[in-house]
Amino acid sequence: MDLTGKLLIAMPAMSDPRFAQSVVFMCAYSAEGAMGLIVNKPADGLSLHALLDQLDISHEDDSTDLPVHFGGPVENGRGFVLHDGAHHSSISTLEVNDAFGMTATLDILEDIASGQGPKQSLVALGYAGWGPGQLEAEISQNAWLTVEADPDLVFGPQDDCKWEAALNKLGVSSVTLSSEAGHA
After folding, report:
1. What is each CA distance from 76 to 13, 59, 102, 124, in whole angstroms?
2. Are the beta carbons of 29 and 146 closer than 8 angstroms?
3. Contact 177, 143 (CB under 8 A)
4. Are the C-beta atoms of 12 and 27 separated by less than 8 Å?
């Protein structure tokens, strides 16, 4: 099982409020652990425009007035930009797959501010991380569903609709899900 480039969808009974109704894009997955970004929870009161101001990065484009997302509870002061696979940072980009890349260096924010950034992007503070075997255990305990990532869903502007949209990709609705795991 390789979850790199997939979406995790929190089940309705998710007990951790930080992950309740979350959709997590998986940036990396291996035997050493997993790393992802929550893509449907904007950080309260923080926009990209304000973040660029805090970092003294000049910008003029109105497109910088986008939300900054709560990427997860790990290193929540560190920034990550999930973006389309066509953009590559001059310093370092993790190529997740053909459709997605992730960059955690300031140059991508400078590119976005100058209008030279990726066509599609999502800025997040913090990330979701799992140690070896931890995510697999959570999946087997019915905490997460998995589905193929869709750029329109990941980068779409309607954060409050992403959880249900991700479930719909599986052909299910949140009202039909059970919080009990089934084991044959």
Report:
1. 24, 24, 16, 9
2. no
3. no
4. no
Q: Which amino acid is at 147?
A: V
Concatenating the DSSP letter of every residue in 80-149 gives EEEEETT---SS--EE-SSSEEEE-SHHHHHHHHTT-S-SSEEEEEEEEEE-TTHHHHHHHTT-EEEEE-
Place of tokens 């905490």: 143
Task: Calculate ∠ Cα 129-110-108, nearest 5°.
Answer: 35
- pTM value? 0.91
**pLDDT tens figures, 82-141:** 999 998 888 889 999 999 999 998 899 999 888 888 999 999 999 999 999 999 999 999
Closest C-alpha among 163, 164, 178, 157 to residue 24: 163
